[in-house]
Each structure stands twice: as structure tokens, then as C-alpha cells.
Specification:
alpha+beta, Tetrahydropterin Synthase, Chain A, four-stranded antiparallel beta sheet
Length: 160
């Protein structure tokens, strides 16, 4: 008859072997999946909300990460401006793309500060192209790895 300790040792040995084999299989799957992804997959930098520098870098996309903002005006009884800011980016420039994604809060603060400094009357009389140029100047002032060239307002509504 076999002693209970021998049976327990053999069971633990079997469990240990199964765990080692499982770890090897998981590591192999992760390695092969990574290699496949590098050569055949499309990573986040190819389709995510990233950004780029110049028109010579490939296919341009639109960065919409700032989202729709609702900003109070500088009036004693403030009105509201609804604005959706977007700009052109080139996802091939990964470092600059990552900087843009990290600066979304800063971009929102810049837009809120700039638009919020005007009264309703001033906003109605402002030239939209001059507003875009000033926002681009301010955005580029906080960027370190490149510059933006074109900005769009998908929504620009003055309520009040």
C-alpha cells in the first residue's frame, strides 16, 4: 500500500507540472500574439484619436477628443456658448499623437478661458476665422513635439 504522503507528493508534483505547462503555454501565446500584432495587426496608433504634424506624413484624420463644450460668457447674466473643436492630425507621428491625447484637458481649459472671456455681444461680432487662429496659437503654445495647422468648429452656437 502506498503511504498518504507519497500520494500527496505525487498529486502536488502533477499539479506543479500542470501549472508550469500552463505558464509556458500562456507565455508562448502572448509572445506569438505580440509578434503577429506587430507585423499584421492594427495598433491603437493607426486608428485612435492621435495627432500628427505635417501633411506629408500620410492620411490625415480628425482629432475630436476635446469634445463638445458648454461655456458661460463674461456677461453679468451669462449666456452659453456650445462649441465642438476639432483639428487635423496624422497618426503616424506617434510621439506627437500621444502628446495631443495627454493635452486634452489643457485644450479644454484654453477654449473655456478664451471663449469665456467674451460677452455675448462680442461673440456675435467676432470673426470665426480669427477665433480659430487665436485658439491654434494658444494650442501650439502648450505643445512641445509639433504644431497644429488647421482647426474646425463642428458646432458653434451662442445661446442667450
Amino acid at each position: 500500500m502506498e503511504a498518504p504522503e507519497d500520494r500527496r507528493a505525487r498529486t502536488l508534483s502533477s499539479v506543479y507540472q500542470a501549472l508550469v505547462i500552463s505558464i509556458i503555454v500562456i507565455a508562448l501565446v502572448l509572445f506569438l500574439g505580440s509578434v503577429y500584432g506587430m507585423f499584421f495587426g492594427s495598433g491603437p496608433s493607426r486608428s485612435g484619436p492621435q495627432a500628427g504634424v505635417s501633411a506629408g506624413q500620410g492620411e490625415a484624420q480628425i482629432f475630436t477628443g476635446i469634445g463638445r463644450l458648454r461655456i458661460s460668457t463674461a456677461d453679468p447674466e451669462p449666456g452659453v456658448v456650445v462649441i465642438f473643436v476639432s483639428f487635423v492630425y496624422y497618426p503616424e507621428d506617434r510621439a506627437f499623437s500621444e502628446e495631443l491625447a495627454l493635452r486634452v484637458r489643457d485644450f479644454r481649459a484654453v477654449v473655456e478661458e478664451y471663449i469665456g472671456s467674451f460677452s455675448l455681444a462680442e461673440l456675435h461680432s467676432l470673426n470665426e476665422d480669427l477665433m480659430k487662429a487665436e485658439l491654434l496659437r494658444r494650442f501650439n503654445g502648450i505643445l512641445r513635439l509639433g504644431n497644429l495647422e488647421t482647426m474646425f468648429f463642428s458646432d458653434f452656437m451662442i445661446i442667450g
